[in-house]
Amino acid sequence: MRRYNVAVVGAGAVGMEMLRVLKQRNLPIEELRVFARSSREIEVDGEKYAVEVISPEGFKGIDIALFAGTEGEKGASLTYAPEAIKRGALVIDNGADFRMDPKVPLVVPEVNAKDIKKHRGLIANPNCSTIQMVVAIWPIYKKAGIKRIIVTTFQAASGAGRQAVEQLKEEIRIITSRDFMSLEVALHHRVLPWQLGFNLFPQIGDFQKAGYTSEEWKMVKETHKIMHDNKIKISSTCVRIPVRTGHSEAIYLETEKTISEERVRELLAKSPGIVVIDEPRNKLYPMPLNVEGKDEVFVGRIRKDPFVKNGLWLWVVADNLRKGAATNAVQIAECVISSL
User: Fold this and answer.
1) How far apart are CA 325 and CA 55, in angstroms?
2) Catalytic residue positions?
């Protein structure tokens, strides 16, 4: 079996998760290199990795480069992805810079793996919230069609990076100790728009046209591109919540054809990458607490709208650092390797 030289660009929360997923999924790697803005040593699950300063020359001999990316931040991908491609690497980019480029495939393997064949050296990883939503709704779309989606996301602090997680932890520590003077100092240095500990707020990204945030528009535009259907009417509200890891979504669908909740449950249970936990009478449904560290998308609270014939509700939860970022990127690499 051929083995590949792989690079991970970024040593933050997603980059470290990529290293963890690469090892757990046993990608056939000959050499693994980690790049970041500064050299240092990091440790993931007891294994130490030497982080090198990123440079164009560092990609020489690399077959696959996984760019961890930072949502909304332009930098490493724009600067170094072309350099990696120039030196023969396939770039799989988790950042937002190339997602809506019509020449760049935007891929969720359970949905549109065939789009990988269209790549020109670069494949984009979608936004974390988009990934888990399209995985959950794709089997329904294939069977009954979808006319409309209304989604509210409940997104964990880790979706905003390691510093946001530290902000949440510090706020909770200070509030529970009732050291409110320290809270004022902590809030002055926050990285999120507002206090997150014991709070939530309906803003992820900057506000854009029609009063929607950039995160909300990502869910609209990316879903259209991934599913190759611009006719689906999509409306979203994205909320940051005081959870460390794991995004949750309340998704309302209006299907083109009538489909029973029993049939939906059956379809989803048989679909790759989905775990159905749907026994609400026994208090069994997906929660962020239970999905952290897992690669699947978890679906529950499947129910019909009693007032709209083809209305359907889903509750969808996934680890945003894994299936929402690192795992999806590594799955794309696996698809590429299997096609060679």
Assistant:
1) 23
2) 128, 247
